[in-house]
């Protein structure tokens, strides 16, 4: 039964759907999907087209907006919006350390998680679309990994789409995870250099924290073991609009004086715990590299292996000399599952996923080459999370796709400049710009 309620300027309706775990076995096991319908409060009785929002990730539920912030207010001028918790996330059937043991051991858990990639998400959308739109195609707005899903949608079921809008999420159609990370680490270096140029005092602060972590065993209040590699991964902030400033404020008061000497402050540790913990989105860690699997090669902890090709990211070597500590970015490593108590029970499952070789292709070049769906994509220049060259190569492979390449925003442009970003994409898709 659907339940409706109000927030400032909007009416919300909770929707729940049952879909097959494996869409190739529709009579088999099922899972539940949750989605939140949003409509402007002054348009509740109107027959509006639908826009479904595919969140970035993988592994994050849809944004829990209050009212009409970011891009949502602009979307509600034209659409009813469906905020979908992709399978395994949010209020949909969860996949985490508490629930995955219901599947059995690590092998059964890994098999289960093979059904949580973009192709399954697209087929979920197609399974629920008739109940929502009466069968009419809808507009999709895909952010980051949601954009990957949108390109898979154009490949697998373009008949379900009236328009496709993509922000920071045009994937390579054929790159292996190794190719993704070989392109990523130089971008991360540039972001770190830009951060230190803005905040030169952070060079010494980051080195001091890293040096402390190399000589002390630090366990955060929630049980997260803060190693120097884990500390470096805070560089993921540098791909967001305000991320450099947030990192600076985090570093500036890291230490306090105690009877035992300088220690990392409780306030610093609490903030780091909230930034690094995967308790709220464990799927991100489990299937992050699997989203690039498309051929007979395993991903095999790609980010960890490729990192060794970039020695500047070796913290011990940097601290032995006078080099600045290099932060890292959007990557998952074997040690991630040792550090995080929300992931430790899933380490063997993650190993099995990293070794898997039977990933199916996610994108159909031939179908994309004859695409007839209006598509517009925002490509953020030097996006830390998604390679610009990969995105533009894919843009040229999708017939009729119009790109807006901008350096005004970082990867989170749809949130930071949402009304403007969505307005621009709609104008491009409608051939009004």
From TrEMBL:
Residues 49-254 form the AB hydrolase-1 domain. Pfam families: Abhydrolase_1. Keywords: Hydrolase. The keyword Disulfide bond does not apply. GO terms for molecular function: hydrolase activity. InterPro entries: AB_hydrolase_1 (IPR000073), AB_hydrolase_fold (IPR029058), Peptidase_S33 (IPR002410), Serine_prot/Carboxylest_S33 (IPR051601). SUPFAM superfamilies: alpha/beta-Hydrolases (SSF53474). Transmembrane segments: none annotated. Belongs to the peptidase S33 family. This is Alpha/beta fold hydrolase.
């Amino acid at each position: 039964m659907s339940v409706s309620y109000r927030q400032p300027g909007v009416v919300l309706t909770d929707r729940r759907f049952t879909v097959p775990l494996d869409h190739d076995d529709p009579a088999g096991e099922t899972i539940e999907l949750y989605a939140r319908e949003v409509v402007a409060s002054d348009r509740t009785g109107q027959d509006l087209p639908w826009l479904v929002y595919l969140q970035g990730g993988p592994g994050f539920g849809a944004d829990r907006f209050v009212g009409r912030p970011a891009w949502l207010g602009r979307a509600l001028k034209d659409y009813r919006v469906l905020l979908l918790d992709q399978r395994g996330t949010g209020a949909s059937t969860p996949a985490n350390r508490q629930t995955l043991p219901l599947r059995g051991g690590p092998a059964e858990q890994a098999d289960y998680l093979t059904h949580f990639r973009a192709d399954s998400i697209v087929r979920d959308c197609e399974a629920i679309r008739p109940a929502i739109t009466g069968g009419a195609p809808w507009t999709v707005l895909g952010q980051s990994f949601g954009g990957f899903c949108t390109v898979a949608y154009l490949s697998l079921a373009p008949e379900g789409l009236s328009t496709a809008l993509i922000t920071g999420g045009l994937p390579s159609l054929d790159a292996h995870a190794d190719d993704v990370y070989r392109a990523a680490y130089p971008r991360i270096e540039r972001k770190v250099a830009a951060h230190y140029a803005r905040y030169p005092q952070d060079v010494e602060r980051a080195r001091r924290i890293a040096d402390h972590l190399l000589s002390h065993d630090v366990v955060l209040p929630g049980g997260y073991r803060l190693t120097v590699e884990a500390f470096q991964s805070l560089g993921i902030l540098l791909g967001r609009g305000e991320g450099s400033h947030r990192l600076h404020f985090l570093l500036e008061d890291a230490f306090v004086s105690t009877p035992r000497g300088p220690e990392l402050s409780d306030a610093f540790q609490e903030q780091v715990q909230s930034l690094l913990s995967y308790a709220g989105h464990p799927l991100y860690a489990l299937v992050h590299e699997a989203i690039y699997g498309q051929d007979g090669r395993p991903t095999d902890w790609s980010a960890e292996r490729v990192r060794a090709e970039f020695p500047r990211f070796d913290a011990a070597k940097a601290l032995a000399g006078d080099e600045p500590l290099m932060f890292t970015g959007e990557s998952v490593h074997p040690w991630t599952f040792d550090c995080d108590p929300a992931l430790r029970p899933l380490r063997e499952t993650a190993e099995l996923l990293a070794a898997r070789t039977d990933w199916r292709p996610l994108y159909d070049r031939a179908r994309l080459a004859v695409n007839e769906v209006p598509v517009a994509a925002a490509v953020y220049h030097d996006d830390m999370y998604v390679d610009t060259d990969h995105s533009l190569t894919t843009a040229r492979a999708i017939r009729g796709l119009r790109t807006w390449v901008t350096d005004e925003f970082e990867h989170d442009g749809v949130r930071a400049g949402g009304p403007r970003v969505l307005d621009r994409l709609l104008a491009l898709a409608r051939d009004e710009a």
